[in-house]
Amino acid sequence: MKQTFQRAELLSAMQAVAPIVPGRTNRPILANVLIDTVAGPPSLVGTDGECSIRVEIPQPFGAKYGKALLPCARTIEILRSMSGDSVTIEVTDKHVRIDGNGAEYKLGLEYPEMYPPVPQLDLQDGPHYVVDAADLRRCLRRTAFAADTDRFALGGVLLDFRGVKNGLELAVVATDTRRLAVSLADCIFGRPEDADPSGCHPIVPARAVSLILKSLADFEGQVRIAVRINEVLVSIGSTLIVSRCLEGQFPNYATVIPGSYQYRVQLQVGDFLAAVRQARIVTSEESRGVRFEFGSVDLRLTSKSAEVGESVVELRLPQAGEPGPTILLDPGFLADFLRAIDPDWTIWVELIDGDSAAVLRTEDGSIYLQMPLSDDP
Hints:
Elements: E1 2-6, H1 7-17, E2 32-36, E3 43-47, E4 51-56, E5 61-64, E6 67-71, H2 72-81, E7 86-91, E8 95-100, E9 103-108, E10 129-132, H3 133-141, E11 156-164, E12 167-175, E13 179-189, E14 203-205, H4 206-216, E15 222-228, E16 231-236, E17 239-244, E18 263-268, H5 269-280, E19 290-294, E20 298-305, E21 309-316, E22 326-329, H6 331-339, E23 346-351, E24 358-361, E25 367-370
Antiparallel strand pairs: 1-5, 1-7, 2-3, 2-6, 3-4, 4-17, 7-8, 8-9, 10-13, 10-15, 11-12, 11-14, 12-13, 13-25, 15-16, 16-17, 18-23, 19-20, 19-22, 20-21, 23-24, 24-25
Helix pairs in contact: 1-2, 5-6
């Protein structure tokens, strides 16, 4: 193989692949990125053995097509250090040569045939779903933080494709049993023959979700999601992410969301988040709770820690009304959700009493449920 690439474009693709490449692994070949100019559009591929990413790169110049393995971290360092517009990669019998603007590097040769294969997403090979990128980005941002890092089946995000009255809906859900986040998006079947009212319900690992969010950052358009046996494929423009699905039973999230409330108040997200952050300052690991007292005209947030001190923060309610319950909540958990919402938006806070879950609802149907902390000393 001998091909000439635009340096900036190759560097950008390498940086997109890099997050999945393991820094330490008992399979040294996974520390490399595969560059492939043979099969389909030229692309870079990285994998950790469980999750893979393929990023297409602009067509290079050169008649010798082929494949090569490049050490990820070192190649990024090389490309960053170069100043020219183009870079040539050549594979010889003994090494991989990287040449550009007067700088030449010869790296050890590894065999691309030993690299794990990464599936292609053939949209004619089985059903797939289509979701707007902005909707998927919003849903993942509002839920991924609630995934459990300790329990295997809850260590990811549920993509619940389900039939609804007007067609098809995607519910994105995450929980660690102390909090639950649900966000909804419209979606469609990729092909009319894919229509299946029973839907499908893959659990995507947290690391793959992080990779999807990074790939969605600047992308506008449609995202295609295919679910195969024990794996999910997500096509985002010129990027394909393939991940194994988590096994296990995800909780029936719909049954834990209260259908009624005794108290309801509307708050502006930015003001509410600012008050939560202020009240959190004097909390500690031993006394991490903030007491939320819903009065008739204001919300009073109090926190107290023997190691730090105490605080009182008051937030004026939009309109006077009957006082509500007092509830003790983890401010860090609450801030995780509020940060994912536009600060100019308003949300509804719904309570039954101080011992039941607090429920927050957004204008567009997202739901966040958080269990109260114990008030025992």
